[in-house]
Amino acid sequence: MVVVGAGLAGLVAARALVAAGASVVVLEARDRVGGRTLNEPIGNGEVVEVGGQWIGPTQHRLAALATELGVETFPTYDEGDNVIEWEGSLRRYRGTIPRLGPAVLADVAQAQWKLNRLAKRVPLEEPWRAPGAERLDSQTVWSWLRRNVYTKGARSLLELGTEAVWAAEPADLSLLHLLFYINSAGGFESLLDTGGGAQQDRFVGGSQLISLRLAEELGKRIVLDAPVHTVRQDDDGVEIVADGVLARARRAVITLPPTLCGRLEYDPPLPGYRDQLTQRMPQGAVIKTMAVYGEPFWRAEGLSGQATSQDGPVRLTFDNSPPGGSPGVLLGFLEGRFARELGRLEPDVRRARVVDCLTRFFGPRAAEPDAYIERSWADERWTRGCYGCYMPTGAWTAYGDALRAPLGSLHWAGAETATVWNGYMDGAVSSGERAAGEALAALA
Ligand SMILES: Cc1cc2nc3c(=O)[nH]c(=O)nc-3n(C[C@H](O)[C@H](O)[C@H](O)COP(=O)(O)OP(=O)(O)OC[C@H]3O[C@@H](n4cnc5c(N)ncnc54)[C@H](O)[C@@H]3O)c2cc1C
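^ thats the input. predicted complex w/ flavin-adenine dinucleotide below
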């Protein structure tokens, strides 16, 4: 078997195939494993993650894998007050939703209630069969917000939430996709919350440790620096051509995000419907930034390190200090339109804009970090955006059934193909398990 990509999905698929007795080669374009997870050392043996990092309740596949591999978790720092920059001033609050007056709060609550109710009706295996799927897939989240959210404040907060979860703008996303994604995570709150939600815990040693441990197990079966460019199929199976490597197998598991699947050469060519799917799954835009300080000084001031801003360009921050609390790390996300805009700036100009935000949120001590780290995922040749791909209008209903359906000897995996926790590390893990099972069943 050949596995294309050594992110979580590819490594998990390879491990399952090896466990079933298959002979496996994993072809990876980068000079490292982990894909969208990547540890960055910050000294004294500590790391921060510039890619995916959090794990939350109900992410059972990821949790089980981490436990098996001996990778432990610790809670995200979530004590003290959050701050919000709203209409030009800074306010402190507790919990996920800031106190912005009863009308705005009630409006957000009714919108979330409606979205959760609609989301529950979207079948995770076949979102295009949801009641009223065509109507839901014909409108953007922007259009829905215009019609269903009545106050400017609530619209602004939900726009912020959309950027935070999908790294895209409400105008980019199909409403059906948003609903599928909410259901896939078990509710809107699960996506947004720190305690009790997707941002609840972090991995000791960084999330990439999971991939590094899987890679140790797989050893020489992984070939790094081997970007695949051509996928040929014939009656005997599949031939995968990468720089410097040609691998033949009866089956292949391809784990690239759908956009990148569309950039491979296929012989025979992909059927039109599968190629057109890959043309309709753009990646979101994220620049993840981290400012490192001697200590997490905000904690002593009763602040959690979590900030939200109406103005941006940093719209969301977290305390991302290592488990022992030293050094202090503030994580700032540039997402959606802000990542698109700031991604074009020179790095030092961007850094100044980010640090200016941190200083507005946390005071003058934030102005001079000891170190500054950032990763712009749209610029990454082997990813091209993040956190993952989303569906614009019309894509799920016209092409959704091509997302996972095997094509000859090819099986598709990756976080984007998951039904549960789609787009997350947990989804990547379950997709690898599923695709490996499919490939083995096809050979049985
Ligand atoms: C900034 C950021 C923050 C995130 N935060 C979270 C979070 O907190 N929690 C969470 O659960 N998820 C988070 N995610 C999402 C999560 O990281 C991904 O869903 C998950 O890692 C995807 O794994 P994958 O194996 O499906 O894909 P990938 O990790 O993208 O793996 C695909 C692999 O294929 C390789 N590849 C690409 N092209 C080729 C080619 N032509 N030939 C060979 N190999 C190729 C790539 O190098 C890569 O290694 C975040 C992502 C980012 C970027």
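Residues 4-10, 27-30, 35-37, 51-54, 227-228, 255-257, 260, 286, 288, 377, 382-383, 386-388, 414-415, 423-426, 428 surround flavin-adenine dinucleotide (CB under 6 Å).
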